[in-house]
Amino acid sequence: MMTMENWIDLCGLDDIPRLGARQVMISGIPVAVFRTSADRVFAVEDRCPHKGGPLSQGIVHGNAVACPLHNWVIDLELGEARAPDVGCVRRFPVRLAGETVQLDAGAIVVQAAE
Amino acid sequence: MRSKLVVVGNGMAGCRAVEELLARAPDRFDITIFGAEPRVNYNRIMLSPVLAGEKSFEDIIINGQGWYEENKITLHAGDPVTAIDREAKTVTTAAGHVETYDFLLLATGSNPFMIPVPGKDLEGVVTFRDLDDVEKMLQAARTGRHAVVIGGGLLGLEAANGLNLNGMEVTVIHLASTLMERQLDEAAGFLLQKELESRGVRILTGAVTEAYLGDTGVRAVRLKDGTEIPADIVVVAAGIRPNVALAQGAGLAVNRGILVDDLMHTSDPDIFAVGECVEHRGMVYGLVAPLWEMCRAFGDCLAAIETQGYQGSVLSTKLKVTGVDVFSAGDFSPGDDKEDIVFRDARRGVYKRLIVCGDRLVGAILYGDARDGSWYFQLLKEGASIADIRDTMIFGQSLAGAAANPTDAVAALSDSAEICGCNGVCKGTITAAIAEKGLTTLDDVKSHTKASSSCGSCTGLVEQLLALSLGDDFQAQTGPKPMCKCTDKTHDDVRRLIIAQELKAIPEVMQHLGWTTPDGCSSCRPALNYYLLCAWPGEYVDDKQSRFINERAHGNIQKDGTFSVVPRMWGGVTNPRELRAIADVAEEFNIPTVKVTGGQRIDLLGVKKQDLPAVWARLNAAGMVSGHAYGKALRTVKTCVGSEWCRFGTQDSTKMGIDLERMSWGSWMPHKFKMAVSGCPRNCAEATIKDFGVVCVDSGYELHVGGNGGMKVRATDFLAKVATEDEVLEYCGAFIQLYRETAHYLERTAPWVERLGLDFVKARIVEDETARKAYYERFLYSQKFMQDDPWEQHARGRDIAEFKQLETV
């Protein structure tokens, strides 16, 4: 299915603590938006593939986050759990426009519809 | 067209056989597995550590639900097969389900042998075979006091040890004159008996069980000599019998077990059998190693791979009782042609006996030091000539001359040589995983192959395999373990260097100490944050992002992502105003559960994160502050009512508890820290399983340290007796500071005291007054920066973004 990109402003970069995350609801889906020490931003569904833990509450390190419930480490770049655990988490396109964090809500609508 | 394989038995043998087949012929079979137990495949031999509280059920799952799904295996768990129709080639289950097969594999295991004495059907007479049995034992340990184990073999002793660790008074009734007489000689059996007795297990050898007594539930066991032993639970571990009923009903050839040939065929060529249910060349096995070998033969055969089949097994055993090293292998029956080599070290409690026949090692018994067990076992299985090493082999592989280089010895092993007995992992599997997946560390091998992840006794072998495969690239974890994968420095190194090099921020520590990752990991960052705030009170600025969510949000995260709130109640004392405020806040915020905790506090469970600051504000308004129930911090001081009310009370224990809590609340620690004060030696506040416990007596206060009531119960060690309340505070503050400064992050006081020794603590806190006062003062100084209520600060708006979602889009 084809769709239009729909980049929306989420927040300022400084609204997310470095090595931290914020949660936002988009079209009924909880999304965790992360900021790394190098100021890269990532967005994934806020649900650990293991037991549904809120990834936005975890400790961010490198380009990964450790789930607060059972310490699964999720690679935010790949959207996959790091070995030995196996599982993947939905990623959403995010980008930095100057100091503003933007997310492609079009991608979420498509995924929600599928 | 795929063939259809039906497997009866979802245990270790059935699933291992399927794994072996999938490894050889991944897409040739449609596989259906029937299991009697309603759960996925787990490692039965690790039930003992589960009973002992050292592992959880999750830790011992071999194949979780995902494995069945990935391999498109249909699992019927909890529905046992009750009949086979060999004509129609179908099996029928208890629930009436009928399944056709092209090939059938029987892996029905064995049944515990129930001694036919009166009362064997009473409630509370159990076996030790599956997770349900473990749960029954744990249940009995919660409600009853006395346990009797029938049988002093491997399984019986592991059960006895587990029940003992769970706080029961355990008696082992054993028919023979020494324990584990099939695996150990008299000397080793005697040492084992003494060791278990010293742990509080009562052992009766040469004892014959006559009856289990009781009306509906068992209450005692009567022996032939008339002795009655009270019992709230009886665990029968008197041997096993192959489970052959299904095979017998189908008309297959059965003797003691289901008869199989070297390719694991039964008397029907389309039906195979593996594991404890079979009889091969006259032998029936009850241990795990033969099972792995049988499954390999089965896999070869069904995948049509050339194989020499199963050749029978030489057995070795290890007792899974933590702290007791027992190993036995081969034959130690007396004979004119046999000679013994014996080594004893009474002080270390070591006994080793090797049995030699000509130039061959035929048996080995090791007690107290079983490190060389796998080396002796290999010599024994290979039938290697020991002529050259005979003089020194008793001292172990590292001192045994020619074959001394352990890496050479590992290099010489064949790919099928078993490295990890607990999980049945052979050398070829490990070396292949190292090569294919690029593994470089012991932890990698553990997580990818399961080798060395259970009892850990094969760790050395796995490291040698890594060294062989990687050459110079392998860096063994020599000496103490590094803090985490981000560094080669140990906890002690890091703590020392933080002070010596005056490192005062996490990035600075990582830079100066050569961290290999840009910003650490979820294991080292919280540790470094603690080490820094302990080293530099008043100077170091806490790094919120390096704290686990509980300490960042000042509540305990629950499995649904909500939080719990526990206000502090000094010494466990509350009043109507506080209770009213708690009741009001629970109603106002629809808090679903209100529960009293083990530490004499009230827990509000299920609070939404965004409600936390408002909930705290209400509690603050009634004068309550954070109870730190979420932190690696001072948790609670539990008290009894003491001399103020109790007719036995010797001192005002409640006030003492409140004073201790007022002094120490808010302090961050390496791990959680709990205290209690009991007003008399009846010890109603359970002070002797706390990190720091006070028991009041007429003449003063007894101080106890290093207790733990958690997973592994440890009673405290007696530290000192003091006369005044001020001394209690001084000793307590000094003890806490010593712990804060020397423990590893996430190390409770119990393992810390055991690691450094009680003498280490006494030397600094009891015997050296100057040192004690210095520790005490450092503690009080550090507390100056700790005692502001985090709830109040957040309720006033600090880090408010932490508790808010971004605006919904």
Key traits:
heterodimer, A: 114 residues, mainly beta, Rieske Iron-sulfur Protein, 4-stranded antiparallel β-sheet, 8% helix, globular, B: 809 residues, alpha/beta, FAD/NAD(P)-binding domain, Arc Repressor Mutant, subunit A, 6 domains, 5-stranded parallel β-sheet, 38 strands, 31% helix
Quick overview of this protein structure:
Chain A has 114 residues and is mostly beta strands. In chain A, 8% of the residues lie in helices and 41% in strands.
Structural summary, described in words:
The complex is a heterodimer of chains A (114) and B (809). With 114 residues, chain A is mainly β. Chain A has a single domain, classed as 3-layer Sandwich (Rieske Iron-sulfur Protein). In chain A, 8% of the residues lie in helices and 41% in strands. Chain A has one helix at 105-113, and strands at residues 7-12, 20-26, 29-35, 41-45, 59-61, 64-66, 73-75, 80-81, 91-92, 94-97, 100-104. The longest helix of chain A has 9 residues, at 105-113. The model of chain A has no long low-confidence stretch (mean pLDDT 88). Chain B is an alpha/beta fold. Chain B has six domains: 3-111 and 242-302, FAD/NAD(P)-binding domain; 125-238, FAD/NAD(P)-binding domain (3-Layer(bba) Sandwich), CATH 3.50.50; 407-477, BFD-like [2Fe-2S]-binding domain (Arc Repressor Mutant, subunit A); 491-547, no CATH class; 550-621, Sulfite Reductase Hemoprotein,Domain 2 (Sulfite Reductase Hemoprotein, domain 2); 634-783, Sulfite Reductase Hemoprotein, domain 1 (2-Layer Sandwich), CATH 3.30.413. Chain B contains 25 helices and 38 strands. A five-stranded parallel sheet of chain B has the order 5-2-1-9-21, covered by helices on one side. Chain B has a five-stranded parallel sheet with strand order 11-18-12-13-14. In chain B, strands 23-24-27-26-25 form a five-stranded antiparallel sheet, sandwiched between helices. In chain B, helix 21 crosses helix 24 (769-783). The longest helix of chain B is centred in the last third of the chain and has 18 residues, at 725-742. The mean pLDDT of chain B is 89. The interface between A and B is medium-sized, with 36 and 28 residues.
